[in-house]
């Protein structure tokens, strides 16, 4: 939750609310505008745009943006306008494997990931970064190269809107392919539930880091997957393999929670070691946290 | 033989309730929901046993719940062990007399034959049991629908050396029948002596008893007694037959024949035979009569020769010189006859405590004539000696301080220092049936000839029994039981000081019987009858060494040697009299029945256990 954001603005960061908005482009804009609106009221100053021009002060502008030196020379109030310093290639990788189709709060992990990807793409485009997009399951489903052209954002959003859930996941494969294809240092954002072999996933991300990319991992997990709130005896069917397991949740809850926590802890520990920003995201929570994490990484990239 | 049946089988309908948990269990199983899930591989990593164990627990829970309901239904149905032979309509018990009056040549074979016929005559639908009896009864073939077991059991029974006790046999047979319908067929020689007064056997009215008579031998000679005397040996021969018999007898000592004699014995009477042989003090003597036609077990009578063990009597006087200080008592004890002798041990009063505390054999009786020199330890030792089974006679004569009477079990109060010399008194037994006076027989009246010039005043208490009074109403002789021992207090002296008792003929018998009574018959028994025994029953006649190493002579019950029989009508009349005590047996049967029907308690107990286990298991699963 952004510091200083109001409830009305936060409403547009709630995944359930976003899901009800029509087009993916509108969703992305809503998310980003809502996020930035909250951000303007915060003391956070670090997002990476640079001075572009002066504009005469208008009532409502942030007083901190007034250039007092210009005022001293001209006796007029001018505010500083910033723009990007350099263009960065940003690649958004969205996992669309079957396991991403799980959602307990009306929004699946894949939908949450697509909202987040759209918002990130929108934000990147707004900052005039080059945006690339890749959707994958056990192979690459969609791949758009990074571009800062004005119409490219629309292409990315269209692909996001069009993407379908695939079958089994293989996170490492697209990571290695992307790492091999990288020609310029940039930012790679991975949106996945990482329900795969951790060792292979970490190897793929380590490959990206080796190629000089800043990597941000959003580990998307549903609230149910994090808390395992089931009580009745349940026959669990795997979304990817269709395997079924009959289990008494009350009996296995502790063990399951130990397993999921072990998995998360391992990702967190080992990805930190290789310099990857790892963020566990509960898909029932608002999207601003993910955007904030991205901006933080983006600022370090300058 | 036994099966489970129910008093209230209607409650077995409750068994259907066992279906409730089963149905619930099955319904619950069907409610497992299906759910798509992403992290199934994490669930798979959970131990497989979890689900399997839960399933097992569920089945265990189900089993416990079903068990509890079943047990509850069974408990209400009141299960009991029912004799499956009841379905045959009744039990016929063949009671076979195996006493030695059935042992004449060919007699028991005939008895077996009649018993087999009785078994084979049992109507179809009846179970058959066989009881063999003499002084005891044993079920040799329990109730069974099949006949072979009963026939085999009959073949295995043989006549012993025991005596006939119809009550015992009939009672055991009635127990076998129990509450069921049934009848008793008794195969016996109808010996009259079998209906002795002893025995607690009963036959319920509803159980008919029919007797199958086995012929008795034409005659029987039996040696019924043997005794040794200073001039020879005397044996008694009984002719149980109907004609006069010439009895040929042999006297054996330590297994060797030492003499022969013959005597003509009229029918139905006993004759004595004297052997001019003086038996040795130690050894084994027996008299055997030749009798091929009668019972073998009573053809010999056995006598163990052993001198009697003297009874140890400690005579407590002031200095320990009993021959002087207790002259008359000492002399009286010296003249006791040969059968019971006393080993006199003079003990100074001052050393009584030491003597009684000394290891080894304690005296049987302590005769206290004085309290001079008797200290507190001596009184305490005397008290302890009495309480562990010793006998004490306090002679409250002139040498006994009155305080002594209060020191031993609180008998009496301190008496006046001097007796009343106002008049001569006589001793009058309070109860002539007391062993001391009973042993004196008709001579007990002679005690009144003694004149008691002085006496001690003795105050009887609730714990004492007055055995004799003085003619002036004072207590002459009191008795008190002190735990295992016995204390007598004589209210005058026994040394010719306060009375002239020692100079009367009754003095020696009185002292003799009093000490015998106090000491008890501690000598080991030298003779037993078949069926007796201090620990285990002896079953064979002759000389037997018991388990404790004691050698005894074992003889048959002489009453059994008389083959006089009853008529069937007399037997039936005797059976009718035996039915009188049915109440006691019925209560036993009721008690047994209650025990047999008490299994519902176990059912409820098990149900409680099942519920407790269910609660425990259920709480662990929740």
Strand share of the residues of chain A? 15-25%
> Rg of chain B, please?
37 Å
CATH superfamily of the largest domain in chain A: von Willebrand factor, type A domain
Find the structural class of chain B using helix and strand composition: alpha/beta
Provide the residue-averaged pLDDT of chain A. Answer: 78
Number of domains of chain A: 2
CATH architecture of the largest domain in chain A: 3-Layer(aba) Sandwich
What CATH architecture of the largest domain in chain B would you give?
A: 3-Layer(aba) Sandwich
Summarize the structure.
Chain A is α/β, with parallel strands linked by helices.
Describe this structure in words.
- The complex is a heterodimer of chains A (302) and B (622).
- In chain A, helix 3 packs across helix 5 (109-126).
- Chain A has 2 domains: 49-84, no CATH class; 87-300, von Willebrand factor, type A domain (Rossmann fold, 3-Layer(aba) Sandwich).
- The model of chain A is unreliable at 1-12 and 40-49 (pLDDT under 50).
- Helices cover 42% and strands 22% of the residues of chain A.
- Chain A has helices at 7-10, 15-19, 24-40, 68-74, 109-126, 152-162, 172-181, 198-210, 223-227, 249-273, 288-300, and strands at 49-56, 78-84, 89-95, 130-136, 140-147, 186-192, 214-221, 234-238, 244-247, 277-282.
- Chain A has 11 helices and 10 strands.
- Chain B folds into 4 domains: 2-78 and 617-621, no CATH class; 84-216 and 565-594, Rossmann fold, CATH 3.40.50.410; 221-305, Sandwich (Immunoglobulin-like); 311-519, Class I glutamine amidotransferase (GATase) domain (Rossmann fold, 3-Layer(aba) Sandwich), CATH 3.40.50.880.
- Chain B contains 16 helices and 26 strands.
- In chain B, strand 9 and strand 10 (233-239) form a beta hairpin.
- Residues 411-415 and 581-587 of chain B have low confidence and may be disordered.
- The A-B interface holds A 98-102, 109, 193, 195, 222, 224-225, 230, 232-241, 243-248, 250-252, 255-256, 259-260, 263 and B 31-47, 50-51, 54, 622.
């Amino acid at each position: 939750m952004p510091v200083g954001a109001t409830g009305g603005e936060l409403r547009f960061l709630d995944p359930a609310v976003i899901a009800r908005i029509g087009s993916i482009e509108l969703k992305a804009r809503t998310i980003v505008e809502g996020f930035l609106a909250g951000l303007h009221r915060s003391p956070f100053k670090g997002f990476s745009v640079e001075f572009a021009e002066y504009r005469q002060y208008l009532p409502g502008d942030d007083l901190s943006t007034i250039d007092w030196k210009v005022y001293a020379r001209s006796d007029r109030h001018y505010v500083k306008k910033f723009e990007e310093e350099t263009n960065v290639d940003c690649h958004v990788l969205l996992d669309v494997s079957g396991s991403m189709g799980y959602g307990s709060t009306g929004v699946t992990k894949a939908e949450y990931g697509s909202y987040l990807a759209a918002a990130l793409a929108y934000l990147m485009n707004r900052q005039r970064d080059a945006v690339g997009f890749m959707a994958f399951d056990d192979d690459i489903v969609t791949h758009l190269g990074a571009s800062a052209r004005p119409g490219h954002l629309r292409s990315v959003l269209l692909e996001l809107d069009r993407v379908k859930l695939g079958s089994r996941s293989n996170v490492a494969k697209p990571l290695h392919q992307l790492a091999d294809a990288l020609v310029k240092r940039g930012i790679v954002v991975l949106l996945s539930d990482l329900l795969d072999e951790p060792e292979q996933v970490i190897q793929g991300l380590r490959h990206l880091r080796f190629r000089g990319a800043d990597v941000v991992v959003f580990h998307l997990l549903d609230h149910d997957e994090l808390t395992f709130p089931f009580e009745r005896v349940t026959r669990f069917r795997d979304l990817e393999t269709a395997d079924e397991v009959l289990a008494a949740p009350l009996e296995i809850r502790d063990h399951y929670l130990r397993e999921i926590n072990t998995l998360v802890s391992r990702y967190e520990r080992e990805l930190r070691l290789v310099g990857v920003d790892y963020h566990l995201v509960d898909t029932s929570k608002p999207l601003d946290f993910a955007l904030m994490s991205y901006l933080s990484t983006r600022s370090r990239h300058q | 033989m036994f099966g489970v049946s129910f008093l209230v089988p209607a409650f077995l309908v409750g068994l259907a309730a066992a279906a409730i948990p089963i149905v619930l269990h099955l319904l619950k199983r069907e409610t497992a929901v299906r759910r798509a899930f992403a992290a199934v591989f994490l669930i798979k990593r959970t131990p497989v046993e979890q689900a399997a164990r839960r399933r097992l627990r569920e089945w265990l829970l189900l089993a416990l719940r079903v068990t509890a309901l079943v047990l509850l239904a069974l408990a209400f149905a009141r299960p009991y062990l029912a004799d499956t032979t009841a379905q045959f309509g009744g039990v016929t018990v063949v009671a076979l007399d195996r006493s030695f009056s059935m042992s004449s040549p060919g007699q028991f074979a005939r008895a077996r034959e009649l018993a087999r016929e009785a078994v084979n005559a049992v109507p179809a639908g009846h179970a058959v049991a066989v009881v063999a009896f003499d002084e005891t009864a044993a079920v040799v073939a329990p109730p069974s629908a099949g006949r072979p077991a009963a026939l085999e059991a009959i073949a295995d029974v043989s006549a012993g050396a025991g005596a006939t006790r119809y009550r015992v046999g009939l009672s055991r047979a009635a127990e076998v029948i129990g509450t069921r319908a049934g009848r008793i067929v008794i195969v016996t020689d109808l010996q009259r002596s079998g209906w002795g007064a002893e025995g607690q056997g009963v036959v319920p009215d509803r159980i008919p008893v029919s007797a199958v008579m086995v012929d008795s031998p034409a005659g029987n000679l039996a040696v019924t007694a043997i005794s040794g005397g200073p001039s020879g040996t005397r044996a008694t021969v009984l002719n149980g037959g109907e004609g006069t018999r010439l009895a040929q007898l042999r006297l054996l000592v330590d297994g060797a024949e030492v003499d022969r004699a013959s005597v003509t014995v009229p029918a139905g009477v006993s004759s004595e035979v004297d052997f001019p042989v003086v038996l040795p003090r130690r050894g084994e003597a027996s008299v055997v009569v030749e009798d091929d036609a009668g019972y073998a077990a009573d053809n010999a009578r056995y006598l163990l020769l052993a001198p009697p063990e003297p009874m140890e009597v400690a005579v407590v006087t002031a200095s320990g010189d009993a021959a002087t200080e207790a002259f008359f008592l000492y002399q009286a004890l010296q003249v006791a006859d040969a059968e019971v002798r006393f080993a006199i041990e003079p003990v100074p009063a001052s050393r009584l405590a030491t003597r009684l505390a000394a290891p080894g054999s304690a005296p049987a009786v302590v005769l206290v004539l004085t309290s001079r020199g008797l200290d507190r330890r001596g009184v305490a030792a005397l008290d302890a000696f009495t309480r562990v089974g010793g006998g004490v006679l306090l002679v409250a004569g002139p040498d006994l301080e009155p305080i002594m009477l209060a020191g031993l079990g609180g008998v009496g109060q301190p008496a006046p220092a001097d007796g009343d010399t106002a008049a001569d008194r006589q001793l009058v037994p309070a109860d002539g049936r007391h062993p001391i006076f009973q042993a004196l027989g008709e001579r007990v009246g002679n005690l009144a000839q003694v004149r008691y010039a002085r006496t001690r005043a003795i105050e009887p208490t609730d714990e004492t029994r007055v055995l004799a009074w003085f003619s002036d109403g004072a207590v002459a002789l009191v008795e008190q039981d002190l735990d295992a021992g016995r204390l007598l207090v004589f209210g005058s002296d026994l040394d010719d000081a306060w009375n002239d008792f020692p100079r009367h003929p009754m003095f020696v018998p009185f002292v003799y019987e009093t000490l015998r009574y106090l000491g008890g018959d501690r000598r080991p028994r030298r003779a037993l009858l078949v069926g007796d025994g201090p620990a285990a029953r002896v079953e064979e006649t002759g000389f037997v060494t018991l388990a404790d190493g004691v050698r005894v002579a074992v003889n048959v019950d002489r009453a059994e040697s008389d083959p006089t029989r009853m008529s069937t009508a007399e037997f039936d009349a005797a059976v009718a009299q035996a039915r009188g005590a049915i109440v006691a047996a019925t209560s036993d049967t009721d008690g047994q029945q209650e025990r047999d029907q008490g299994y519902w308690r176990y059912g409820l107990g098990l149900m409680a256990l099942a519920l407790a286990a269910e609660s425990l298991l259920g709480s662990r699963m929740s």
